[in-house]
Structures are given as structure tokens and as C-alpha cells.
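The authors assume throughout that readers already know how a fold can be written as C-alpha cells. For illustration, here is how one protein appears when written out as sequence plus C-alpha cells.
>
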Amino acid sequence: MVSTILWLLLIAFVGFSIAFIIKNVTIKKRALEKLKTINTHEISDWNGDKLESKRSQMDPLADETVQTIMSKREEFKINHLFESIVKDRDQLPPDTPQELIDYFDKSAILPEWADPDLIALGQQIYLRHGIWIGLLLCYKSLPECYACARGAEVLHQTARLNEENGSLETYSRRIAETAQFVVFAMSPGGLGVRGKGLHSTQKVRLIHAVIRFFLKKHHFDTEKYSEPINQEDLAGTLMSFSALIIEGLEIIGIEFEPVELEAYIHCWRVVGHIVGLDDDMIPKNSADALKLGHSILDREMAPSDHAKELVRALRDFQDMKSKPILGKNSNIALMRLMMGNEVSDLLGVEPISQDKIDSMQRKIKRITWVGEILDKSLIFSMVLQFLTKLGLTMMLRRMTSADIINFYLPTSLTRDWNSHQRR
């Protein structure tokens, strides 16, 4: 009986392995053909004048939708509607405003250039390296976003990331939602018609419009900070989640093949379209994405006390969630390894010896070296993807027990809404 079960398990494993190999070889072969049609050397002119002009531009589709809904001044119905969106996009309440239905229909349309084969390969790449990408999200992407002082002011004022005076519970929930957004968007099938990634990106776009609505209603200083969540800030965030992640992976010894690199960036180009980026703010290829990311970071990086507050909250979160795993001072070493000393100093990250930073890099590289060897074997790659899925699930559960992107009016803004209603 035992031997029969073992034989059946072996046959099942072999069958799954063969199917996995055929599927992945086919996807990569098709993607390689598509790569021939991409000019990987084309670089846009991301000059300061163009990027500055984009700071006055936002998202007409989402903003007009929210403006129409909010103008009805029916707070209870609005909150009920948003709760319904959270629970199930495909079962909106019967009294859903037509403008909101139109928003979901229009924002779900992928651009003509979106390629299913490149998306499929890009999401496979994510699945193979998701744990490290998740690590980089906390130690590179988010803090580099905070380094952009004008954009960080929006995060601080809305208090979506540090409300309740920096409550770790609240902060954990916000970080977990960001991680979930990335996992949903970059998991296989996530950008399909019924994909979690598509729906969560639409919700994030709507959340941005809600925040813009309230900030502008309550005299956000656009002269000093530009429009809230403008096109440049949105592009900078998307590049920090994509092109600048590639830089972080290279630091720890993970390098993509050219077709993998373009496929991964292609996924984020599609996400950029769904989340409301203008066509002329979507980079053309991986090199263009990297140039855009650095152009924005170099322009917007500036000292900010509010940015330092956001980083302190992030550091507290890291210490609470990962210190027992990574060891003493590892969070400081990781942040300085991933961002470099200039950005780290600007954000008030504590100093640490270069020896400890180099030691951290060597430790991680030893782990990624083994992973990259296994990844080159398609059979082991299948096992690695399974373990990555498991690891991502455990990572999200360590952050939060929720499995949705919440849609709610931030506490500070809800309070303002109530005051506005009484006047």
C-alpha cells in the first residue's frame, strides 16, 4: 500500500514536471520572439522641464469619478459603496452610480501594446524571486519613495502610512496592503480580466483620487508641493517598485537575462497604464525605466523631517517583523546596502560600519547563489516557485491577517469630511 502511494506520488510529480517544463519553455520561446520587436536601446528624454510639468497633472478619469460621487454628500452611502468594492468588485450594489461602473469598465482595458506572453514570463520571473523582491520593497523601494520630499508630504498629510501617531498596527496594515498589491499584480493571471492584480490596481487608483479630493478640499499647498499624487510622483513610485528593484537584485547577486528583464518591466508598464499613468510617462523598455526612475529620484530627493518620520515608522516595523530572523543591526545594514549611504544619510538611517554592510551582502549572496543554480533547472525551478509562493503567503500573514486591499477613507480625512458636512 505504501509503495503504491509512493509510486503514484512519483508519477504525479513527473507529470507535473513535464507539464511545467513544456509550459515555461513555450512562454519563453514566444517571449524571445517578441523581444526582437522591442528597441531595448531607446531612451526617452526625461528632462527636468517635462517632469516638472507632469507635477501639475493627475488622473482625469479617477478624479472626475470621485468628484461626482463625493459631490452628492451622502457619507453613509459613499462608505457603504467603498466597503462593497472591497468585498467584491464583480458584485457591486444595485445602486452603484453609473460613473463608478464606467470607471471600472474603462480602467480595466489594457493598452494595445500589452503582450500576454511577456506578461506571463514577467510574472513567472516574479514568482521565482518574489521573496527577495518583497525584501527590497521594505529596504529600498519604500524608503527611496520617502526620499522624494514633495511626494512624501502627501503620505505624511494623509496619514495613510503613519496615522494614529505612528501606530505600528496601522503601519503594518498599510505596508501589508502595499505588499499585497505587488503580489496580486505580479502573480500569474493577476492582470487578467478577473485577476486580483487588475482589480487591486483599479482600487489603488481610486484611493489615490479620494486622497487627492480631500487634500485639495483642505488647502493642500500645491504651490510648495505641486498637485498631490501627480504624474511624476506616480511614475517615481512605479519605477521604485520595478526598475530600481532590478538594481537591488543585482546588488545581492541576481541578474536577469535580457528577455526576462524586458518581460518583468513590461508587466509594470501595464500596471502603470491601469493605475493611471499618462502614455508619455510609461517608459519604453527596461533601460528607459531605469533612466526615468533615477531622473525622478535625483530631481526630487531632498531633506525632509516628515520623510524621516516615515522612515522611523518603517524602521520600527522592520525591527518588529524581521529582527528576530535577520539578526541584530541587520535592518540598518540592509537599508544602507540597498540604498547606499547618501540616501540613507538623508533619511536619518543610523550609521553602521562598512564591514557589517559588506558582511550582510556576502551572506545574502551565498543564499541567492544557491537559489540561482536551482532556478536554472526547470524541475528545481518548479519546486522553487512552490516554496516562493509559500514564503510570500507566510510573509503576508506575518504582516497582517487580511487578504484584501482595504478601501477606506483615512481617519484624519474622515474627520475632516465630517467637519465639512456640518458646515
Q: What stands out?
A: The first helix runs from residue 2 to 35. Residues 56-422 form one domain. DSSP finds 21 helices and no strands in the chain.
